[in-house]
Amino acid sequence: MADRHEERPRGAAAPAADDGPVGGGSPGPVPGAPGTGPLDSGARVSPASRAPEAEEAAEEAGTPVEDMEAKIAELEDRWLRSAAELDNFRKRIARDAERIRTDERDRVVGEWLPIVDNLDLALRHARAADAAESAIIEGVRVVRDQAIGLLARLGFPRHDEVGVPFDPKTHEAMGTVENTEVPAGTVVETVRPGYGEGRHQLRPASVIVSTAPG
To answer: Which proteins does it associate with, and in what oligomeric form (predicted)?
Structure first.
């Protein structure tokens, strides 16, 4: 039997192909549509899932009150250190100033010693002078005594004692002499008085020391 072909009029459209399952029905899911695959980048995360991370970050950062207390403690420590350094600086300046004053006083007073020595020398030579000059001699003695008193008030007492044991801390031996009336090592004459004592000694006394005969 020969195949029969249904002839279509020229220009007629071909029948449409079936797009869905036989019998109709809804189309299948479209790939990439919302709700059909993994969450896209714009999806919101549940607050409950972020709570542990937020609490951990807050614990590490500390509360504002704790941060403020830590800052105050740091500032107090810096202030105490600065106050201690300032106090030490003031004490050091005071010590340096006192040392400078003492050194300058010693230097100035030392300049007076030759004047006092000359007054002593003048009185020594004036002992044989005429009685008419006794008033002048007495005037020189008064000036000399005033100078000695001033040195003593400044902390430099005069040392011209005789009959005392020789002390290398306060005496400078200028010579020796045999003497049977006093023990050996006794100061029998002061050639030049000394002034001051200890750390504030301007100069030792220049003396003659006794020795045993023989």
So the answer is: Homodimer.
